[in-house]
Amino acid sequence: MKKYAKLTPQGSRDFLFEECDDRKKAESVLSALYKEKSYRKVITPTVEYMDVFDDGDSGMDSDIMYKLSDSAGRTTVLRPDNTMPIARLVATRLSADDFPVRLYYNQNVFVRNKALAGRTDEIPQSGIELIGDGSFDADIEVLTMAAEALKRSQLNSFSFEIGHAGFFKAVLSKMNITSAQRLEICRLTEGKNYAALGDLLNTLDDTAETRVLRRLPRLFGTAEVLEEALEYIKTVYDKLCALGLGDNLIIDLGLVNRSNYYTGVVFRGYAEGSGVTVLSGGRYDNLLGEFGLPAPAIGFAVDVNALCDVMNEVINVERPIRIALTKGRLEKSSVALFQKM
After folding, report:
1. Helix or strand or coil: residue 79?
2. How many Å apart are CA 247 and CA 222, to the nearest integer?
3. Would the CA dihedral through 184, 186, 187, 191 be positive or negative?
């Protein structure tokens, strides 16, 4: 008997009936928003050469990638990120005369997550990239579109954390640490794992930078932390408040992303009812230069699986009863009604 014939691989899942409808609806709502704002759709290959991601700016350990090889023995991977292939696409198919260019996509990424991490390894993403515009207005455009994306998804409530990648990078750049230590510091700071971060920093010299890092994960809140934030983040914060998003905003100087290509404002979106990030993005002004066409850029991606999980709780007051035949017995289960905290 085939041992694994009836199983899905670790980190994967099947989708049935209304789950498929939910995903299509979520992507349709988001795509409609992107089109309204004059963004145009692109599709990149599911399989890319590893060289696209094997770079110091990717922030991706090769161990998290699903590796393959082509007929010539060259290493390829299942796409672990959407931004870098789109940067490759723009740099090789367009020119500076086309800038600014507004692009959107609906396609999956594949990342090996740790067991029980709460995420699948195959993640459908829907997102945008605004390339060739490094202005403050471009940042505001993308941030307000990110907020609108969550609003149109009919979530019960959502919040945004905003920070600045340059603040964290400036600290790390002055530290005498290995690339592995850098990645681990990013991972622990991103997860606000204070105890483990402290243990790691205890193995390093006591410097001004390590003292900042010990404090950095706790530098989050609302207006009271602005005195310790970069002036640019204060400007962004004030503008978004003026646009009516003040109740949804949190300043977080400990906000980092393991994708090292971010250079400016970074942000994440959270929805009531989900324990994972449903949206993330930021400015990345150096990435396209790695592919031969220097240009500023900013974008975001929505985790469609996470978004659908929350939408199901909020919108579907009564989900269809699921009937499964298990060991000769009919078992019924239904999704519990969403209750506000």
Report:
1. coil
2. 9
3. positive
Structure tokens at 35: 């089109």
CB atoms within 10 A of CB 277: 17
Six-digit token string for 28? 């349709």
Based on C-alpha coordinates, what's the Rg of the chain?
Answer: 21
CA–CA distances in Å: residue 284 to residues 18, 87, 289: 37, 10, 10
Q: 77: closest CA among 56, 50, 52, 110?
A: 50
**Per-residue pLDDT reduced to its tens digit, 269-320:** 999 867 789 999 999 999 999 999 999 999 999 999 999 988 877 655 444 4
Here the tokens at position 284 are: 């990345």
Q: At what angle do helices 231-242 and 136-152 cross, to 10 degrees?
A: 50
What are the tokens at 271? Answer: 């929805």
206-220 pLDDT, tens digit per residue, is 887 787 777 766 666
Report pTM: 0.82
Determine the Cα–Cα distance for residues 219 and 199; give it in Å rounded to an integer: 19
HSE-up (13 A, CA, CB side) for residue 277: 19
